[in-house]
Specification:
By secondary structure, the chain is α+β, with helices and mostly antiparallel strands. Helices cover 45% and strands 20% of the residues. A 5-stranded mixed sheet has the order 3-2-1-4-5. α3 packs across α6. The chain is globular and about 40 Å long. The termini are close together.
């Protein structure tokens, strides 16, 4: 799995933005990402050697970049991000136990954590629900 970091960034960007725009369609529509305007958030999946930098602009919506100077960051292993996304484990526990870590501007990091935690699982597109519901148990066994 460590080869995931070798995937060209344009491919990663297309996939990540597509998934995020689907998963966060309602918060994006409601303007809940405006706190990221002019700021960069680094999301790092440590065990896969993947990292992305996200920002938001009113004109373009979500923006992804391969390298920026981050204002805040969230990092952890894939398993912890899956546990967070599926709500298989309490989000506060994941952060308190430092299995997921917020770095830099804590206010921005906490806004992102709360935004991730507020996504209604029932409003997710069917493909994302399928990936989370079927993939999470498999990943838990593998990782």
């Amino acid at each position: 799995m460590q080869q995931a970091g070798k995937i060209p960034f344009p491919v990663q960007r297309k996939v990540m933005l597509n998934l995020m725009e689907q998963a966060f369609a309602e918060p994006l529509e409601d303007g809940d990402f405006e706190f990221l305007e002019g700021k960069w958030l680094k999301v790092e999946i440590s065990d896969l050697q993947l990292r992305w930098f996200f920002s938001y602009s009113e004109e373009d919506g979500l923006i992804a970049s391969p390298d920026e100077i981050e204002d805040a960051g969230i990092r952890g292993n894939l398993k912890e991000f899956v546990l967070l996304a599926t709500r298989s484990e309490d989000p506060d526990s994941l952060f308190f136990q430092r299995r997921l870590m917020i770095e830099g501007d804590t206010e921005v990091g906490l806004e992102v954590k709360n935004l991730m935690d507020s996504v209604d699982q029932d409003s997710l597109p069917p493909m994302i629900k399928l990936i989370l519901n079927k993939g999470a148990p498999l990943l838990s066994k593998l990782l």
